[in-house]
Amino acid sequence: MTRYIVLASFTDQGIRTVKDTTKRAAAVREMGARLGVQMKDIYWTLGEYDIVLTVEAPDDETMTSFGLTIGAAGNVRTQTLRAFNSDEMQSILGKMG
């Protein structure tokens, strides 16, 4: 499975209904599972981003579908980062000339 970090910020709609944020997170977890995306962690944060997720998906296409589905609900805007563990990074570095 491929790992991703998702940074999310509330939209105007999302902040107006912020009291539902934990319920929405549970719904996103279930929706992700149906798509084959496993939500590992979710954190509500201070600063530029309101929510940080760590997720695993089988491929970029599945992760893109997950992100678009979240965005279509209108409560958050997301930025998705592909994450590499130490072994994956070592392999990447080994491909350098």
TrEMBL record:
Name assigned to this protein: GYD domain-containing protein
The top of its lineage is: Bacteria, Pseudomonadati, Pseudomonadota, Betaproteobacteria, Burkholderiales
InterPro entries assigned? GYD/TTHA1554
Q: Do you know which Pfam families this protein is assigned to?
A: GYD
Q: Where on the tree of life does the source sit, at the highest rank?
A: Bacteria
